[in-house]
Fold:
Amino acid sequence: MEISEFIEYVRRYRHDFVGIAHHYFHDEHEVEDAVQDALIRLWMARERIEPPERFRQYGATATRNICLDKIKQKHGLHFVEVDLAEGKTSGHSPQSVLEESENETLMQQCMKELPAKYKELIRMRNGEGLSYKDIANLIGSTESSVRGMVARARSILIRQFNERRKK
Structure:
C-alpha cells in the first residue's frame, strides 16, 4: 500500500475509529491516543492488509484491541498472596491451613482447564475487580449476557472442583 493510499483510507475511516474508541473512553485525550496507536499499528502492517479495501476492518479491530489493552493497563492486576510458610494465617489449625492450600491448588488446576473465554471472564471479574458493565463494554456484549457467562464459568469451576475433590 502506497503512502497516498494509506492517507486516503485514514481520511475516510478515522471517524469510525474515533467512534469505536469513544465506546471505551470518554476522555478525548484517551480517544486520540488510542486512535493514533491504531493508526501506527496499521501503518506498520500496511503491506499485510490484503485487499486494501479491508483497511476499515483491520483498523476497527486494531482500535478495539488497543482500547482493551489500555483499559487492562489502567486497571492493572491486583493479586493478594498469602504466605503460609510465615504463618500469616494465625488462628487456624495446621489441618485447616493444609486443606486451604490443597483447595487453592485444586482451584488453580480447575482454572487451567476452563475454556479460554470463561477463564478471561473470571480473571476480569475476580482478578481485576471489573464490574459486569465494564466487562460488557470490553468484550462488546450486554451486561446481562456477561452475568450469564460469568455464572456459567463459576458453575463449571464448582463442578470441576467438586469432582476433583471426590477423587
